[in-house]
Design brief:
Blueprint lengths: L2 H61 L11 E5 L2 E10 L4 E10 L2 E13 L6 E3 L3 E3 L5 E4 L2 E3 L2 E3 L4 E3 L3 E2 L8 E2 L1 H10 L3 E2 L3 E3 L2 E9 L3 E3 L3 E9 L3 E3 L7 E2 L8 E3 L3 E2 L16 E8 L3 E2 L4 E11 L3 E2 L4 E7 L11 E2 L6 E5 L4 E3 L2
Parallel strand pairs: 5-8, 5-24, 6-9, 6-25, 7-10, 7-26, 8-11, 13-15, 14-16, 15-17, 16-18, 17-19, 17-20, 18-21, 19-22, 20-22, 21-23, 22-24, 23-25, 24-26
Antiparallel strand pairs: 1-2, 2-3, 3-4, 4-28, 4-29, 12-27
């Protein structure tokens, strides 16, 4: 081999070695980047779990009354590979704490926010009367939820109750900020100072009257009906559908709510083939006697008595979601066990 050939071979070897070295460095760099990315991803997942742990810790401290509306300070703890800090803001009108949990693992931070309401056991009721009785005598059907009264619950086995029945429960004085809903109705041109009737039409928004309300056949009410006078379902009212928006009440009155039939007991029909979703609230009594094949999804509360006697095909389903978010302007006196109601607004935010 000539001297020139040897020189060319040496150059070729050096080029190959340079290429190999470059590839090795590139592969090492890629592996290092991949490892760093994997570590960052793992830390981000850990931070999310730690933020959720902080949230749950704060909710527990609210539940066991370590913290309350007058004392809900910032909470900071180490946890696992990192730490969390939880802050809270309390809104008295809605009983809702807005909790913000920030977690850090090494240099990775994640933050979540959620509203929770720590409330009276009242809000874990399907049906509650502050008066002397809840009377279901002579009726058949199912109540899925808890039922309570300040004195007695009269059932006699005709209605299947899947929740707890509590007698002698302290009065909870459920009430509503009627002026709030009056203002909403006025803004929508649906404020009245006389009796109003709903039947054979579809309605939406918020209706308010200082008088009474009559609800008849085929009233499709995608609205809230708020009255200072009585709310009455016309005799044999058929195919009434009530489905309010924004977690507003379905029906609320300073007086009473009734649906009763006429004629002999065997022939009487009150509300029939109907569905009411949401909060039903009465400053007086609620009388839903002689109901036929009708469904209630929500909560029914009365300052006085609740009667649902001599009905058939009654279905009542407690729906805690009507308080998530809390019904605006709804107030009560805390009573019974504490209930935790998440406001279904969990969200991750940029810290």
């Amino acid at each position: 081999m000539t001297t020139g050939s040897k020189g060319i071979s040496l150059i070729a070897v050096m080029i190959v070695m340079l290429i190999v070295a470059t590839l090795v460095l590139l592969i090492a760099s890629m592996m290092s980047t991949g490892t760093k990315t994997a570590v960052i991803d793992m830390q981000a997942q850990q931070a999310l779990y730690i933020a959720e742990a902080g949230l749950e810790h704060y909710i527990y401290l609210l539940y066991d009354e370590t913290y309350d509306p007058d004392n809900h300070p910032e909470l900071t703890r180490s946890f696992g590979e990192g730490s969390y800090t939880v802050t809270s803001v309390y809104d008295a009108p809605t009983y809702v704490y807005t909790l913000t949990s920030t977690a850090t693992v090494d240099s990775t931070t994640r933050q979540i926010i959620e509203g929770v309401s720590i409330t009276s056991g009242l809000l874990d009721r399907g049906i509650h009367a502050d008066g002397s009785t809840v009377d279901l005598v002579g009726s058949s059907g199912t109540i899925n939820g808890n039922l309570s009264c300040s004195v007695h619950v009269l059932n006699y086995g005709g209605v299947i109750i899947t929740g707890d029945v509590t007698e002698g429960m302290a009065k909870v004085n459920p009430d509503l900020d009627y002026d709030y809903y009056k203002t909403l109705a006025q803004a929508q041109g649906q404020y009245y100072t006389s009796a109003i009737t709903f039947e054979n039409a579809t309605y939406s928004g918020v209706y308010y009257t200082t008088g009474s309300v009559a609800i008849g056949d085929n009233a499709i009410i995608n609205a809230s009906i708020i009255a200072e006078g009585a709310i009455n379902f016309d005799y044999n009212a058929d195919n009434v559908q009530i489905n309010p928006t924004n977690n507003y009440p379905a029906l609320a009155t300073k007086s009473g709510i009734s649906s009763t039939g006429t004629g002999t007991p065997a022939s009487r029909i009150g509300l029939q083939n109907s569905t009411i979703n949401g909060l039903i609230l009465a400053g007086g009594s609620i009388n839903f006697d002689y109901i036929k094949n009708s469904t209630f999804n929500g909560t029914m509360l009365a300052d006085q008595n609740i009667d649902m006697k001599d009905g058939t095909g009654i279905e009542f389903n407690y729906d805690k979601d009507i308080f998530a978010p809390m019904t605006p302007g709804f107030t009560y006196t805390a009573s019974g066990e504490i209930a935790v109601l998440r406001q279904k607004d969990w969200n991750e935010v940029t810290p």
